[in-house]
Amino acid sequence: MKIIMLGAPGAGKGTQAGILSWKLGIPTISTGNILRAAVKAGTPVGLQAKSYMDGGKLVPDDVIIGILAEALAGPDCAKGYILDGVPRTIPQAEAMEEQGLDVDVVLDLEVPDEVIVARMSGRRVCPACGATYHIQNAPPKTEGVCDGCGAKLIVRADDAPETVLDRLHTYHEQTEPLLAFYEARGKLRTVNNQPSIEAITAEIYRTLEI
Ligand code: AMP
What we know:
Blueprint: E1 2-7, H1 13-24, E2 28-30, H2 31-41, H3 44-54, H4 61-72, E3 81-84, H5 90-98, E4 105-110, H6 113-120, E5 123-125, E6 132-134, H7 161-175, H8 177-184, E7 188-192, H9 197-208
Parallel strand pairs: 1-3, 1-4, 2-3, 4-7
Antiparallel strand pairs: 5-6
Helix pairs in contact: 2-3, 4-5
The protein binds adenosine monophosphate.
Adenosine monophosphate binds near residues 31, 35, 56, 88 and 167.
């Protein structure tokens, strides 16, 4: 199955993609995680992407399209994949179509902006392995420490409140038009926000009939 996770930053795409990935036995491709790794490693792509990311702006489409094509060419993606955070613009979605990178279903996680802002202030990430936590909704077993690899958890630079507002603005302006794009192709499925991670997962399973 080839799935795109759509939704505002902080809507829960990464969390739900991780759960679905385990359930379906297919990898999640997160351009955000790939870019953060590139920034950390100081590669040319990372150096180019850093200033956009720190400012809550989108990285240029040509950079993203290159990263995505490379990631999806891996043998682990042959049986299917879950795309988390990509495509994020109409040109990215068009480039995917041109390259024959098709999708079966686009899950739109609908969460009101005010819920997003509250949620992102509690988000913590592991700088070593990329796992995400939330101080209230999904805390690690030991406060401030990654369950998976033991590294000290941090607040992502782009989760600072003013950057969150910029990212939401970017989402509404540049990513939301993808809803109509995929609706027109009969691929869009809307998942309404629920009170817990488990309830959203249940809603997604119902939508995908799995
Ligand atoms: P994310 O972890 O998906 O929220 O991504 C973090 C940041 O990486 C975003 O705010 C963008 O600056 C950049 N980014 C990730 N994916 C994309 C994409 N598909 N298009 C453009 N920029 C992206």
